[in-house]
Amino acid sequence: MNYLIVIEKTKTGFSAFSPDIPGCISTGKTKEDVENNMREAIEFHLDGLREEGYEIPTPHTYATNIKMPA
Question: pTM for the full model?
Answer without folding.
Answer: 0.88
